[in-house]
Amino acid sequence: MGTPLEPRDAQAEEVVDRLMEEYPDSTISLRYSNRLELLIAVILSAQCTDERVNKETEHLFAKYDGPEDYASVDEEELAEDLNSITYYNSKAGYIKSSARDIIEKHDGEVPDTMDELTELSGVGRKTANVVLQHGHDVVEGIVVDTHVQRISRRLGLTEEKRPEAIEPDLMEIVPEDVWQQYTHLLIDHGRATCTARNPDCDDCVLADICPSEKGDSDIDLASGEAW
């Protein structure tokens, strides 16, 4: 098994340094051209791949222009436009409700605070963080998606299990100036190497500092189960 650096902040900094070298162009993979499109894309991305979302939003963003269009469309029609997305009926309702609130409460503009964003339908802290970071250049925290959750635990950076608890734990050890990039780096690494079911530890730039490295370790710290 790999040997993690001590203390945890040293481990976090080394992880970031190595992954930045491995993925120098790491960035958000969702496609959008304005803040509203970003918000909608992130809502749709819950439990759905970014690749699928990008395919769906290509025609969605061509059909709808601005919050008024989403607020006024029949919800069943909007759901039909999203029918290849997981939980498309619920997400259509979230989008329509959020668009209405954006018009009525925020003068047609996507809000720029955590509190206001998380008051929108279907928007939790993770979604709000993405919108703040990429729509408003405001970095208040770390976006904890499934890749960040899995790999941070595997690397021994956190023992927390829930995203709500993982985020503040990581914020204590990840340098603030790379909070945004940390998420993208771990997403890229999770897709390329540190996959959920069969990580390629033999070809991993973090193997020597990863306590879950399956060459020697018996346990996947992400799940707490044996390899």
From TrEMBL:
Q: What class of enzyme is it?
A: lyase
Q: HhH-GPD domain: which residues? A: 44-192
> Record's InterPro entries?
DNA_glycosylase, Endonuclease3_FeS-loop_motif, HhH-GPD_domain, HhH_base_excis_C, HhH_motif, Nth
UniProt-listed Gene3D superfamilies? Helix-hairpin-Helix base-excision DNA repair enzymes (C-terminal) (1.10.1670.10), Hypothetical protein, domain 2 (1.10.340.30)
Q: Which organism is it from?
A: Natranaeroarchaeum aerophilus
NCBIfam families attached to this UniProt entry: nth (TIGR01083)
Gene that this polypeptide is encoded by: nth
Source organism lineage?
A: Archaea, Methanobacteriati, Methanobacteriota, Stenosarchaea group, Halobacteria
Keyword annotations for this protein, in alphabetical order, are: 4Fe-4S, DNA damage, DNA repair, DNA-binding, Endonuclease, Glycosidase, Hydrolase, Iron, Iron-sulfur, Lyase, Metal-binding, Nuclease
PANTHER family in alphabetical order:
A/G-SPECIFIC ADENINE GLYCOSYLASE/ENDONUCLEASE III, ENDONUCLEASE III
Q: Which family does it belong to?
A: Belongs to the Nth/MutY family.
Pfam families (alphabetical): EndIII_4Fe-2S, HHH, HhH-GPD
Copy out the cofactor comment.
Binds 1 [4Fe-4S] cluster.
| Residues the entry annotates as binding [4Fe-4S] cluster | C194, C201, C204, C210
Q: Which cofactor does it need?
A: [4Fe-4S] cluster
The GO terms this record gives for MF are: 4 iron, 4 sulfur cluster binding; class I DNA-(apurinic or apyrimidinic site) endonuclease activity; DNA binding; G/T mismatch-specific thymine-DNA glycosylase activity; metal ion binding
Question: Catalyzes what?
Answer: 2'-deoxyribonucleotide-(2'-deoxyribose 5'-phosphate)-2'-deoxyribonucleotide-DNA = a 3'-end 2'-deoxyribonucleotide-(2,3-dehydro-2,3-deoxyribose 5'-phosphate)-DNA + a 5'-end 5'-phospho-2'-deoxyribonucleoside-DNA + H(+); Hydrolyzes mismatched double-stranded DNA and polynucleotides, releasing free thymine
What is the official name of this protein in its record? Endonuclease III
Q: Which HAMAP family match?
A: Nth
Share an example GO biological-process annotation for this protein: base-excision repair, AP site formation
Enzyme Commission no:
4.2.99.18
Function of this protein? DNA repair enzyme that has both DNA N-glycosylase activity and AP-lyase activity. The DNA N-glycosylase activity releases various damaged pyrimidines from DNA by cleaving the N-glycosidic bond, leaving an AP (apurinic/apyrimidinic) site. The AP-lyase activity cleaves the phosphodiester bond 3' to the AP site by a beta-elimination, leaving a 3'-terminal unsaturated sugar and a product with a terminal 5'-phosphate.
